[in-house]
Design a protein that fits this description.
Layout lengths: L1 E5 L10 E4 L10 E3 L2 E2 L4 E10 L13 E5 L30 E5 L7 E8 L1 H7 L10 E6 L14 E6 L2 E10 L10 E5 L4 H8 L2
Antiparallel strand pairs: 1-6, 2-5, 3-4, 5-6, 7-8, 7-10, 8-9, 9-12, 10-11, 11-12
Keywords: Disulfide bond, Glycoprotein, Immunity, Innate immunity, Secreted, Signal
Protein name: Peptidase S1 domain-containing protein
InterPro entries: Peptidase_S1_PA, Peptidase_S1_PA_chymotrypsin, Ser/Thr_Proteases_Immune/Dev, Trypsin_dom
Length: 204
């Protein structure tokens, strides 16, 4: 079996198919010109959904799952693996003001890179204290700049950073509060804290 990182455990009951190599949702084939088109998307059904055993729906604690596909995938220019961190690789104090980004489709037919900044845990906990209880498995990030972005429907999207020339996915979007306050940060699952569970589950 072959695996794919995902989250939003409560929505996984509706997951039926994984589509890989997609870019523009409004077209059947993505083309730059008539003669320059991408390969067809690759579709796989889901054999097994492995939910973290300590997931809690009340505070989305351990809000991560693995999807096992029914067949292998051939990597090409449209389908590539991404690195996962064994340890934290982002300065959570935001002293260095690292630029990170969240890639989402949102209401657009093509994905958007939303530039983000880390929010230190102490600050994050204070900002959301009346909305949510921050857990140890969460990290926080805010949209960088005063941009209006609709993140609705983007749960499970990747929080990424360029680290020593490689792109790492180090967070999964778990919780947002767009209807409560524009200042509230978004909560992400800290992948580094779950890397052992991911490896153990994937090798079974």
């Amino acid at each position: 079996n072959y695996k794919n990182l995902s989250r939003n455990v409560t929505a996984l009951q509706q997951a039926t198919e994984i589509v890989l190599g997609e870019y523009d949702l409004s077209t059947a084939t993505d083309c730059i010109t008539t003669w320059n088109c991408s390969l067809q998307t690759t579709r796989r059904s889901i054999d097994i959904v492995k939910i973290h055993p300590n997931f809690t729906a009340s505070f989305y604690e351990n809000d991560i799952a693995l999807l096992f596909m029914n067949a292998s995938v051939q990597f090409d220019n449209n389908i590539r693996p991404i690195c996962l961190p064994f340890v934290s690789i982002v300065d959570i104090t935001d002293v260095q003001q690292q630029t990170i980004y969240n890639t989402i489709w949102s209401n657009d037919s093509i994905p958007r890179q939303i530039w983000m900044r880390n929010v230190p845990r102490k600050n994050c906990r204070e900002q959301i204290k009346n909305l949510f209880a921050l857990t140890e498995g969460h990290i926080c990030a805010r949209i960088f700049g005063k941009h209006s972005v609709d993140m609705n429907g983007s749960a499970g999207s990747a929080l990424q950073v360029d680290y020593h020339g490689r792109i790492f996915e180090y967070g999964l979007l778990s919780v947002g509060f767009p209807n409560e306050t524009d200042a509230a940060p978004y909560l992400y699952i800290d992948i580094a804290k779950y890397i052992n569970w991911i490896h153990e589950s994937a090798s079974m």
